[in-house]
Amino acid sequence: MPVIVMSSPKGGAGKTTAATILATELAQRGASVTIIDGDPNRNVVDWAKLGGVPPTLTVIGDVTEDTIVDHIEAASSTSTFVVIDLEGTANLMVSYAISMADFVLIPVQGSQMDAKQAARQIRLIRDQERVTRRKIQFAVVFTRTSPAVTPKTLRHIAERLVELGVPVLKSQLYDREAFRALFSYGGTLEGLRSRGVSNLDAAVNNARALTAEVIEHLRAGAPVEEAA
After folding, report:
1. Is the four-CA dihedral 74, 48, 170, 153 of positive or negative sign?
2. First-to-last C-alpha distance (Å) of the chain
3. pLDDT (average), residues 183-188
4. Distance from C-alpha of 168 to C-alpha of 119, rounded to nearest angstrom
5. Which residues pair with 37 in a beta bridge?
6. CA 177/CA 174 separation, integer angstroms
């Protein structure tokens, strides 16, 4: 089953938010999903403790370099999708996860610093392709962007990535209160409807668009079980 890795050598790029949103949206479509929390901060594990986790979603923490491969193999045998949240550094755990990935999503905020770190991550993916002797799909996703204004720097970075042949998702993960609220209240975006969170419908539509585009990329590379 598809293994989707969220990876960036820069902390605070939005990996955990993207992983949690993607996993919950897939689970709400009826798919069985496992999130492997490989970040020492264990933010996904803490989110799960708040309750409201979809019944088809499993969260695994306490992952180490010695166990990450076993966890990925076990989750792949039981879940339709495996989503992995990694820490913002380069280490063996990150390399192992990328080597087993069907799709690597690289969260990038609209700054030249983030773009530089994304380039480092792409080199790591290329290195793992050489080690495993197989193609590893990947794409950049812009995170914490404004839904109303596209700054000139962000536009320039996006255009430059396209010129270099780097895949970039059309869907951006906007800076939404609802995405932050998930880690205060737990559960899913739909579960926040009683919390008075602003612009919730826009956040839900954003999450669904991102999820649909990830599935589209996976289907372009290999057959994916339908998540209705």
Report:
1. negative
2. 16
3. 96
4. 13
5. 85
6. 10
Q: Give 150: exposed, middle or buried? Use CB within 10 Å, 0-12, 13-18, 19+.
A: middle
CA-CA distance, 189 to 198, in Å (whole number)?
12
Q: What is the CATH number of the domain that holds 8?
A: 3.40.50.300
Q: Which domain holds residue 62?
A: 3-221
Query: What digits encode the pLDDT tens for the residues 143-180?
Result: 999 988 888 888 888 888 888 889 999 999 999 999 99
E strand or H helix at 137: strand 137-145
228 domain-assigned: no
| The token pair that represents 186 in the structure block | 């737990």
DSSP state of 144: E
Q: Report if residue 47 sits inside a domain.
A: yes
In the chain, how long is the greatest CA-to-CA distance? 50
Residue 152 lies in a domain: yes
- CA distances (Å), 143 to each of 36, 67, 109, 130, 207, in order? 21, 29, 5, 29, 12
Q: Name the CA radius of gyration of the chain, rounded.
A: 16
How many domains does one find in the chain?
1
Report DSSP state, residue 193.
G
Contact yes or no for 28/126 (Cβ under 8 A): no
Q: 56 has which bridge partners?
A: none
Residue 227 lies in a domain: no
Decide: pTM greater than 0.90: yes
